[in-house]
Structure formats: structure tokens, C-alpha cells
Amino acid sequence: MKFRRHALAVLALAAAALPAHAQLKAEVIHWWTSGGESAAAKTLAEAYKAQGGVWVDTAIALGEQARSVAINRIAGGNPPTAAQFNTTQQFRDIVDQGYLNNVDEVAKRDGWDKFLPETVLSAIRVNGHYYAAPVNIHNMTWFWFSKAAFKKAGIAEDPKTFDELFVALDKLKAAGLVPLAHGGQPWQDGIVFTATLAHFGGRDLYLKVFRDRDAKAILGEDFKKVLLAYKRLQSYTDRGSPGRNWNDATALLINGRAGVQIMGDWAKGEFAQAKQEAGKDYGCAPGFGPKAPYIIQGDVMVFPKTSKPDQIKAQQLLASVITQPATQVAFSMKKGSIPIRTDVDVSKMDICAQMGVAAMKDKSRHLANGEIFITPDQNGALQDVLTSYWNRNVPVEKVQKDIVSALRN
């Protein structure tokens, strides 16, 4: 499917010709459907409305489904104004196919290069053009601890190492609680693997696997230990785990039935919705130790190709509103993420967010999400291998070989 192409100058002039008071309607496809996510999405809608726009909400459960709907509509010539993707290579194909408008004018005017981390810039800037507006920064590998469950199991302090994590899981199991609250879906299995690789295997091994796709490292003893630790974590899940949504797993921690969850910081939005307080009702750790890697992920909005002046102006307004300081703080306080900007006041954010902000100030801790380094096809193949290993009795040596094949160029 080919889109009609017009000179950027003509589009800009047409957009500028719109009446200043015209309401700019923006249909936004996203997958923010849980309680905390919906509350966060509402902050974006309100900020857009406050600056003259009309937000048309198209929420679709599950990221894979939302992205599929967005791509089908874009290719079919009925695009939304904007669509949510992750800060990865997920939208690179539709950039290459010419399906997106860039927002260079907004990025340059608002100085995105001055406040965005390089890992984010490398995802949204393609061939010198800005094809997405970053919404937030997530770390996908937080460890969450239920204070109520820990108290029942006689655990006095949150784990500070992977070894201490396993000790805590054993105590939770002995107390008759669900040690590890997990949603048995491939993307969630992938998060647990990523957390194990980064925080059990370490930064160097993580990069050898994801960035370098180093077959020798993947077939090596250190990576085998990572896979065995990953499989050991599966033994602490409950029978209700398969198919469970991530927010339902978080609810097990909120009601004290489970002790630990490994999930992105969007889980914090569910704790906030339940009126629970970080440090009092639940614990959080982005990793173990003061130099633990901080895996940078996040959400972006992309802007499908259109020649309609009102839609172009709506896209540019939305890109600007999303990245403004006040919007950034309001959204992250509901979502559980941290702002993309370093020049905002985060003093009112909770202690978990403060940990994230501190980590982002230390560039030595920055670690790109694995999906930055591999294509969506490679990531899908890797998830298939990991989910099969998580759920079945597969020899670890076979898993190592299968991962080499999955990540092969």
C-alpha cells in the first residue's frame, strides 16, 4: 500500500492555514487498559485537551493486538492520528516503508536532543528524522515485594542479591503463599528472562547475548547458569499462572497472597490505584546493588502518514504536549514510569521513582532493552524458545542451541 506523498513545505503551509481556534481531533490507539494505565492515559488526554485538542481514545488490550490493529489501519489507508509502540525496533518497518510522518519540527523546536537519553534517541531518530514522540522511560525488570506476604513468611528485609531472592522465595513457599506471582504469557516470560540475564548473569553477558548475539557466549557455562536460574524461578509460580494477565499477578501482591513479582515499573500504577504506598505496603528494586543495570525501555507515539492539514497539526501538537514537563510528571506518577526529561521536578514522586531517576543520572548503569538490538522476528523466535523452556522439560543445552538459532542474522 502506497501513500500519497506531498512536499513537507506544502503540508506545513496548509497546516498553518487552519483557524487558530480549530479543534484538533486526535484518535490515539494504545494498549493502556489496566487501572493504573487508564489513569495515566487520561492525563495525556487532559493535557491535550487543555491545549486545544480533542482526544479520541481507542484502547485495545494487549500490546501485540493494539500494534496489529494500528499497522493494519495504516496499511489500509484509514490511519489513526497516533499509535503507541515501545521504544524499540517495533516501528522500524513502517518507517522504512514510508508509512509515518516525522515530527522534526517539534523535536528541533523543543530541543529533544538536549534532554533525551541516547538509547531513546537511537530508537526514535531514523536517518536524521524523528518518527516518534517518547512518552516515558520504563525499566522492565523491577522486583516487587509484598510487605504483608513477607511478614507472614518471616522475611525481615527485601532481598539484596539473587541468592537472597531465592532464600525469600523458599520462605514464602514454606509459608503457603505464592512465592512468585507471574502471568504465563510469552512477553512476561521474556521479562523474567531479561531480569535474570541482566541481574544474575551481569551486564557484559547481557550485551554478548543481545547486542553481539555471540554464539560462543550463548553456548557457554555462564549463560547455562542464567538459564538454570530462570528455570528455577518457574518452580515458584502457582498453578493459576498460565495465561494470567500481568496486573492480575500484581493484584496477588496487593492482597498479600503472593510475595514477589518481576515486572516493569508500570506495575507501580496498580499499587497506586490500590492506595498502597511504596516502602510501606510494598518494596521495589530495579536490580541488586548500587550499580545494578537499569534497563531502559518505554513507550512512544508514532504518527501515521497523512496529507490532511488538520491531522498534521494534531500530530505536531500531540508530540509537543506529550513531551512537556508537566505532562511528563503527571503521566509517570500514574503510570509508574519516570519522565523522559532530566529537567523536571520529581520531588513529589515516590521512592521507587526516585531510585529510577537516580539510576538515569548514572550513565554507567544505562542498559538498552534487548529489543533495541534485535528485530521483531528475532525477538519472537527468542520468546518461543524461552516460553517452551519455561513451560516444558527441555534440556538446557538444547535451549542454548535454539537461542543461537533464534538470534542468527
From TrEMBL:
Keywords: Signal, Transport
Localisation: Periplasm
Keyword Transport among record annotations: yes
One Pfam family per UniProt: SBP_bac_1
Main location: periplasm
Keyword Nucleotide-binding in record: no
Signal peptide segment: 1-22
Domain of life: Bacteria
Family under the similarity heading: Belongs to the bacterial solute-binding protein 1 family.
Its biological purpose: Part of a binding-protein-dependent transport system for a sugar.
Protein's name according to its UniProt entry: Probable sugar-binding periplasmic protein
